[in-house]
Write a structure and sequence with these properties.
Elements: H1 2-20, H2 45-53, H3 56-72, E1 76-80, E2 86-88, E3 91-98, H4 100-124, H5 129-132, H6 138-142, E4 164-171, E5 177-183, H7 190-203, H8 205-210, H9 217-228, E6 238-241, H10 250-260, E7 263-265, E8 270-273, E9 276-281, E10 284-287, E11 290-293, H11 316-321, E12 326-328, H12 345-353, E13 364-366, H13 370-378, E14 383-387, E15 400-402, H14 408-420, E16 425-429, E17 435-440, E18 444-459, E19 462-465, E20 470-473, E21 489-495, H15 523-554, H16 563-575, H17 581-590, H18 592-604, H19 612-625, H20 632-647, H21 656-680, H22 685-710, H23 718-727, H24 731-738, H25 744-753, H26 761-774, H27 786-800, H28 803-806, H29 817-842
Parallel strand pairs: 3-21, 6-7, 6-11, 11-12
Antiparallel strand pairs: 1-2, 4-5, 4-18, 8-9, 9-10, 13-16, 14-15, 14-16, 17-18, 18-19, 18-20, 20-21
Length: 860
């Protein structure tokens, strides 16, 4: 028995040695996995054995699943590629492991550091003892554009300026951890760290469950509990203030807000009334108590800070000044991100805590002082010189200079700049950071330099460190940490525990108040959902119309092959604004080839303002704005539509049948989108506004195509009516019901008045009526709201319409005037209804009142 056990251990060790054979460390650089003796460090052995036990196929499958999950979740990040697009988030499933003793040192050092920075902010925006007693030079503070003078004297809740802070760390060759930079403005990456953890735990479940990996959820719970407790109300409203979807890190903002249970908002979602902050919702203004800020402090208030800001809220700083909202982090916290402060932190730590720093900073010299500037100039070739003041139009140039890589001319120019503008520069020691394994299913393990971002949060018991973080590995292999390409490859960070890990999860918290409706829907989100429904329905109408024309040209729809139908199709393209009247007339005069050329431009020209790419681009753009409110499956359908049209280009030898295939696929995707909306969205306000937009647009579409094809007396031709049924997706219904050729009264009944036909106008009006009835009532004294009145009148008129008489021609023109008037009134009613919905639920035009700063006179 003992011999069998020994043989098993020997086999495991042999497999481990073979697996690690290709992995080579870098001489003189600390390796996270391999010790100086070439052996695995003790805390890595269990994981490596588990990883080997998976087998090559299972490891490859796990990597594929990880990338698929990230892709399906739409995870992107701040770096952009050469073409200006967002890069996908890259996660290496081979994690960074940190043993308990190492983590204890990191925790103690970072808690101390966060405490010092918070005390520094309290002092700089208060008594300024650091300046008066010479601990900090005034130029370093007052010359920093992130020192916001209007924030001086503002009292913050609980004296907590830093609610959420991050630090970038690296390990030196001797194994000690060093702090590279402090992130106090609006530290990013915590949401990505959460996503990494969830994906890694799903792809490596056995080790994660048994390997004593510390969980992250309790950290976020402690932060949120403390943050919410700072409100004066029992049920506070907390929001995450984001610059919006135009920023590539918006995914993280939406993800983190959803995880914490906050609403993600933009500046335009908020407004100040009588020195209080409100969220604009479809039910009116809701008082905001807490703001988790993810925009720069100087962008928060265009009245008192940067006047060119469109991200902030006019009057927000006054609301903070009056103590009516708690801001995390405090406006002005970015002043301590200045890397020049790194050289002063040891003195600040002794000043506030009477302690030396437990975690040192990378050696830094601020060239704004004569002695330090002389040191930087004397060692220019051995340092990294970085610009700490932001570039402006008048100070263009590089941000960093690596001494050993400078040419003589560059070194001379930099030396001159240092002598003239030394306050704008720092010199930093060149650091060789630690390396760690990077794994790929094809290439095995290779070594690459790594930095680590760790997050801290203010809790009721002081600062707490998230037991994990975001490890970033440089693909280009550079060993100079400050210039690692951000996020090229990321890793989950597994902090190991000496004992069993807690299993608390915010995603499965059992102590929760039951809810069945989210009522704090921001007006902007409702507006975007409303227009997503409209654009999606508009796209479906366009695709169906273009497919009918393609089928006509290809001869697939033989029943539609006549000159009148072709003219009607081209006319509909004009009505739907895919073609100008002049272009349509010229194409029809020149014949079939000219019509086909126009169609090809609509289908395949990405620059055509009225083309298919433009129509579907509207859907994609508006969907990006409400990404966090759409399910993964719904988002994947929208992404498939975008990918299909983006990759579809006119190629040599392309046939009409290829275009027909494209359009049929788009019809299927749009139908799938409608199905997801109807079957998977909860019947809350989000669904109602999306479906309301879709119904309004469908009424407008039906009204236009029916009017254009039937309002003239000579337009009752069977082929035209067949076309109309095809465009309204009602051909099969008609054939199953009437067993005869298309007749105008029957077609009108099916498309206008039949409330059992999901494509009919009456069906849409009844659905709209249901939505309007369920919307928040802003004026209870009105018997019928303006929106309800419009819908009621249209429903009544449609029910009372004599469809047979509507088919009768009148006047000298022989036009069906009564039918034309009914359809025009309906379309006009939809436009009026859209305007009323916008004014009622999406606009908050009440006059704003913001008082000026309150001055307190000592002794008064």
């Amino acid at each position: 028995m003992a011999n069998a056990a020994s043989e098993l251990v020997a086999n495991d060790m042999a497999a481990r040695d073979q697996f690690l054979q290709s992995y080579r460390g870098v001489p003189g650089v600390y390796d996270e996995m391999i010790g100086p003796d070439g052996e695995l460090r003790p805390h890595w052995r269990l994981f490596v054995d588990y990883f080997l036990g998976m087998g090559a196929g299972e490891r490859a499958d796990a990597a594929d699943v990880a990338q698929r999950l990230l892709r399906e979740n739409g995870v992107t990040y701040m770096a952009t590629d050469d073409e200006g697009g967002s890069r996908p988030w890259m996660l290496d499933l081979f994690p960074l492991l940190i043993d308990p003793s190492d983590w204890q040192q990191i925790e103690a050092g970072l808690i101390q550091r966060a405490t010092v920075l918070n005390a520094a902010l309290q002092d700089l925006y208060g008594p300024q003892r650091l300046l008066r007693e010479g601990v900090l030079p005034p130029a370093l503070v007052f010359g920093n554009p992130q020192f916001l003078h209007p924030s001086h004297g503002v009292q913050v809740n609980g004296d907590v300026f830093l609610h959420f802070v991050a630090f970038d760390l690296a390990r030196a060759p001797d194994g000690r951890w060093w702090v590279l930079s402090d992130r106090a403005q609006a530290p990013s990456g915590a949401g990505y760290a959460l996503e990494n953890r969830i994906v890694a735990a799903r792809c490596l479940p056995e080790f994660f469950a048994e390997g004593r990996v510390r969980r992250l959820a309790s950290f976020f719970h402690a932060f949120s509990e403390n943050f919410l407790s700072m409100s004066r109300r029992d049920e506070p409203l907390a929001v995450l203030l984001s610059p919006g979807p135009a920023r590539d890190i918006y995914f993280e903002h939406a993800y983190l807000a959803r995880y914490l249970g906050y609403s993600v908002v933009e500046g335009s979602d908020l407004t100040v009334r009588d020195d209080r902050l409100f969220l604009k919702t479809i039910e009116g203004l809701k008082l905001v108590d807490l703001v988790l800020r993810r925009i720069n402090g100087d962008m928060c208030d265009p009245l008192e800070l940067r006047t060119d800001s469109f991200q902030g809220v006019p009057g927000l700083l006054q609301v903070v000044r009056d103590g009516n909202v708690t801001m995390a982090n405090a406006i002005g916290a970015g002043v301590v991100e200045n890397e020049a402060l790194l050289s002063f932190l040891p003195a600040m730590s002794r000043f506030f805590l009477d302690q030396d720093l437990k975690l040192p900073s990378i050696a830094t010299w601020w060239a704004g002082q004569p002695q330090e500037r002389d040191h930087v100039l004397a060692n220019l070739r051995d340092l990294v010189v970085r610009k700490v003041s932001p570039k402006t139009l008048f100070t263009p140039g590089r941000d960093s200079y690596i001494g050993p890589e400078l040419s003589d001319a560059e070194a001379d120019q930099l030396a001159n700049d240092l002598r003239r503008h030394g306050r704008d520069y720092i010199g930093q020691e060149l650091v060789s950071v630690s390396n760690m394994p990077v794994w790929s299913p094809d290439g095995g393990l290779h070594s690459a330099p790594m930095t680590l971002r760790v997050y801290l949060a203010a809790t009721e018991n002081g600062y707490r460190v998230m037991p994990g973080g975001l490890a970033r590995v440089a693909q280009n292999g550079t060993a100079r940490a400050p210039w690692l390409t951000p996020g090229d490859i990321t890793k989950d960070v597994w902090v190991l525990s000496d004992g069993p890990a807690d299993t608390f999860s915010l995603l499965a918290d059992q102590h929760v108040r039951l809810r069945r409706s989210g009522r704090d829907l921001p007006s902007r989100a409702a507006d975007n959902l409303f227009w997503l429904g409209r654009y999606a329905e508009r796209a479906e109408g366009a695709v169906r119309m273009l497919r009918s024309l393609v089928m006509y040209l290809s001869g697939e729809a033989t029943s539609l092959r006549d000159a009148q139908t072709l003219e009607r199709l081209v006319s509909l393209l004009v009505v739907q604004q895919h073609m100008t009247s002049r272009r349509a007339k010229r194409a029809l005069e020149q014949g079939m080839h000219a019509v086909e050329a126009e169609l090809w431009a609509i289908l395949f020209d990405p620059d055509s303002p009225d083309g298919l790419a433009s129509v579907l681009g509207n859907v994609s753009r508006i969907a990006d704005l409400v990404r966090e409110r759409l399910s993964t499956d719904t988002w994947n359908i929208l992404k498939s539509m975008s990918d299909l049209t983006r990759d579809w280009t006119l190629r040599p030898g392309q046939e009409v049948a290829d275009a027909s295939q494209l359009l049929t696929r788009l019809v299927q995707l749009l139908a799938a989108l409608n199905g997801m909306v109807m079957e998977n969205m909860t019947r809350g306000y989000s669904w109602r506004f999306l479906d309301l937009g879709r119904r309004i647009e469908r009424v407008r579409y039906i009204s236009r195509v029916v009017r254009d094809t039937t309002s003239k007396a000579h337009s009752g031709h069977t082929s035209t009516l067949d076309l109309l049924l095809e465009l309204a997706d009602s051909s099969m219904t008609y054939r199953g019901r009437y067993k005869m050729g298309a007749r105008l009264p029957a077609v009108l009944d099916l498309l206008l008045a039949d409330d059992s036909n999901p494509r009919s106008m009456m069906f849409q009006l009844e659905a709209i009526d249901d939505h309007i009835q369920a919307m928040p009532k802003h004026d209870e004294d009105v018997v019928l709201s303006p929106a309800k009145r419009i819908v009621t009148e249209l429903v009544a008129e449609m029910r009372l319409a004599d469809l047979v008489k509507l088919t009768e021609a009148s006047g000298r023109s022989g036009a069906r005037m009564a039918l034309d008037r009914l359809l025009r009134r309906t379309e006009t009613g939809m436009d009026e209804l859209s305007n009323i919905v916008t004014q009622t639920y999406f606009s908050h035009s009440m006059a704003q009142h913001v008082s000026g700063p309150q001055r307190i006179v000592s002794g008064a």
